[in-house]
Amino acid sequence: MSFDAATQSPSTDTIAEARRQVEICNACRYCEGFCDAFPAMFAERVFGDGDIVQIANLCHNCRGCYYSCQYTEPHEFALNLPQALADVRVDSWDRYGRPGGLGALFQRHGVALSAALVAGIALLFLAQAMLTPANGEGFYAVLSHTVMVAIFLPAFLFPMVVLALGLRAYWRDVGGAPVRWVHLRRAALRAGQLKNLDGGQGQGCNFEKGDRYSQARRHAHQATFWGFLLCFASTSSGTLMHYLLGLEAPYGLLSLPKLLGVPGGLLLTLGAFGLAGLKLKADPQLGAQKAWGGEMAFVLLLGLTGLTGLILFAVSGTGAVPAMLALHLGAVLTLFLTTPYSKMAHAFYRFAALVRDAQQRQA
Questions:
Q1: pLDDT, tens digit (0-9, with 9 covering 90-100), for 170-213
Q2: Which residues are bridge partners to 214 per DSSP?
Q3: What is the pTM of this model?
Q4: Residue 345: helix, strand or coil by DSSP?
Q5: What sections of the chain are H helices per DSSP?
């Protein structure tokens, strides 16, 4: 498989180095049971650029292969497959993003950019609420429902369009075929179970403890994933209640939006800040070093979104609502707008890679 000549390919050096290492791994085959990247790798004899990008997006950076490898430095082969695949993966997300280059900018300056966007957007929301007081109850007494919809609907649709365009290009480059239900089912099961973070034998991965196994990253990732889905379901249920049933916010503690949103916010906050803590313990040389700041910014932004949502719920009915609402909306809007350029994109491309892998296993 090869990339469309009309589009710019990832760094030639990055692809070439990953190909060199993948070919050595393909000859050795010691790590066959570690994760889905290795069966996909061992099924090929010649690796085009699309094959390398597909393998890179199957990799979950658990790092088990690195600590089991006999060809890492000081061996002359100097293998560091987790880093090589991470570099390709990050380059591919930037390549598929529109407009190109924003992903690389976020990866280099993610923390500063996220902080500036959250603060700037929060100040704009706060100024708007102070200058044009809204009429309504709860949050709508600070910012009207119409204003929220007018701002957040385009902010949600924009990244979805960018990601859809990127996924279409990715699917073409990796040779994707028409998708069937069985492919989606297998991919969803492996994604939902985080099967590729179990070390192949269920003992966990080597992300933050070197050659010792740990389940901490898997647990933190699961908490973040399910927390995010619960928060999204909370917002969706509130939208349906508003438009279909005529039930407007604020909602009570035992309402569906709160029953989904409160545990979702707790899981999202604990999981995201847990991932940030694990990232501080992990060896940066086994990942995409140029993207470290962007990856940290992403998990901190997720944690901030969950935390500010919980605090906003806790201070309901007090004078702190306007400031906390502005901060929370700033975090949410920043998360949406940066989705195609932050590590949030990995959820979409990795799922696509798992679907393509399911197709190849059935071929």
A1: 999 999 999 999 999 999 999 988 888 876 667 888 999 998 99
A2: 205
A3: 0.89
A4: helix
A5: 12-28, 37-42, 49-58, 64-68, 81-96, 102-131, 145-173, 181-193, 216-244, 256-281, 292-314, 321-337, 345-362
